[in-house]
TrEMBL record:
Enzyme Commission designation: 2.7.1.100
Domain of life: Bacteria
Lineage, highest ranks first: Bacteria, Bacillati, Bacillota, Bacilli, Bacillales
Function: Catalyzes the phosphorylation of methylthioribose into methylthioribose-1-phosphate.
Entry annotated with the keyword Nucleotide-binding: yes
Keywords recorded for this protein, A-Z: Amino-acid biosynthesis, ATP-binding, Kinase, Methionine biosynthesis, Nucleotide-binding, Transferase
Protein's name in the database: Methylthioribose kinase
Family membership: Belongs to the methylthioribose kinase family.
């Protein structure tokens, strides 16, 4: 057994050699560290002779984006590999295959998905993904239903909750999403041009009440096993295939947090479109595509979730009580909308931003995109407990966005 230390590329190659089932008869192996996320090392290892390859992801004992001053548990590698295995059983073909997990080295060895693109990049480049709504709604319905008290043995679920206690990664979310953006915090980071917006976030009592309620849900509601960080940088995609990666933030939390994460990141891209198109009509056309995708995701998710409930529901009273399903789905939509809003706001004024907006070169266009994202985010947070349908999320997003343009 090797003692923990961050691997070099050569060490990664030596470990890869032992995986003869994935890289049989390997002679020369090539390795490159390709990690572009905020937290971990990622090694891409290829055998040029056979064309075979694999990915090794290693947790560092600190948050890479900040440095060693922010220590972070290595246990997140266990959480990630166990989540990928559970998700792979519930949603086959929608996550990478895990070949091996090494607890000593905090290392997950998995399928190489380099034939896909990271969805955030694909969206920035104007890609369209006709399978996405179908795939992600299946991923969400399967993983959330079958790890909740509706679809999983309720005693086993309690034991699972224990396995996925993830306090350090949850604390990142609690701080970065549900606290820092609404106060003066050293973690925050935003352009000076939107100081007025940041000030408003710090003083809006109506917003603070809704954020406090969402935060309470995130802290206390062990509804289902979440991915926990389901943004478009955690999704690999092609027009024919979708693969969800990077579930190191997994824990038992409110389902709407995962669904909201997906919708929020589509809306962040929506807010960015003027920065990526030659003409207004191209931008408008792409925004329409994003709105259709958002509508399809919720509609398909709802239908799939309810079908699973009808066919596999294990909770007698929850399945039979008149009106319960309708109320459950309405609350889930409301949570989705609220969490989506909170996830948009944090990406503009908080520590970790999104390339969709940050990489817009023209400062005025970037500023408008930031203001648009904040307007949509705030409007969704304020809407959440009043919402009855996905059309209200769409109306709120379109209206908030048009108000910024005017
Ligand atoms: N299975 C994979 N196949 C190919 N590339 C991968 C795979 N997993 C991660 N990567 C690459 O590594 C990058 C960072 O991975 P990610 O899991 O998001 O790390 P972090 O947890 O640090 O955010 C991804 O953006 C992608 O480019
Ligand atoms: C200090 S971690 C900031 C941020 O990074 C994580 O994203 P990723 O692992 O995909 O890079 C997560 O969203 C955290 O909130």
């Amino acid at each position: 057994m090797s003692t923990y230390h961050p691997l070099t590329e050569n060490e990664a190659i030596e470990i890869a050699r032992s995986l003869t089932s994935v890289l049989p008869n390997a002679e020369t192996l090539h390795c490159r560290e390709i990690g572009d996320g905020n937290l971990n090392l990622v090694f891409h290892i290829t055998d040029p002779n056979s064309g075979r390859s694999l990915i090794m992801k290693q947790a560092l004992p600190y948050a890479k984006v900040v440095g060693e001053s922010w220590p972070l548990t290595l246990d997140r590698a266990r959480i990630e590999s166990e989540s990928l295995i559970i998700e792979g059983k519930l949603a086959p073909e929608l996550v990478p295959q895990v070949y091996k997990y090494d607890p000593e080295l905090a290392l997950t060895i998995m399928e190489d998905l380099s034939d896909h693109v990271i969805m955030r990049r694909g969206l920035i480049e104007g890609g369209r993904y006709p399978r996405f709504a179908e795939d992600i709604s299946t991923f969400l319905a399967q993983t959330l239903f079958f790890t909740s008290d509706l679809g999983m043995n309720q005693q086993e679920k309690k034991l699972r909750v224990r396995d996925f206690i993830n306090p350090e990664l949850c604390k990142i979310t609690e701080d970065l999403i549900f606290d820092d953006p609404y106060t003066v915090s050293a973690n925050n980071s935003y352009d000076a041009a939107i100081e007025d917006e940041a000030e408003e976030l710090r003083t809006d009592g109506e917003l603070h009440l809704e954020v406090a309620l969402l935060r309470e849900k995130f802290l206390t509601q062990a509804q289902a096993l979440l991915h926990g960080d389901l943004h478009t940088g955690s999704i690999f995609i092609t027009p024919e295939s979708t693969k969800v990666i990077d579930p190191e933030f997994a824990y038992f939390g409110p389902m709407g947090f995962d669904i909201g994460a997906v919708l929020a990141n589509l809306l962040l891209n929506y807010a960015s479109r003027d920065g990526w198109h030659a003409s207004d009509s191209e931008a408008a056309d792409y925004r329409e595509y994003l709105i259709t995708t958002i509508r399809d995701i919720w509609t398909q998710f709802e239908a799939k979730f309810l079908k699973l409930w009808d066919e596999h529901g294990i909770d007698r009273i929850a399945s039979a009580a008149p009106g319960y399903k309708e109320l459950y789905m309405k609350r889930l939509l409301q949570d989705t909308i609220g969490f989506a809003g909170a996830k948009m706001v944090r990406r503009i004024v908080g520590l970790a931003h999104v390339a969709d907006i940050d990489r817009i070169e023209d400062a005025a266009v970037r500023e408008r995109a930031q203001r648009t994202a904040l307007a949509i985010g705030k409007s969704l947070i304020k809407l959440n407990r009043r919402a009855e349908s996905i059309e209200q999320l769409i109306d709120a997003a379109v209206t908030a966005s048009s108000a910024v343009k005017a």
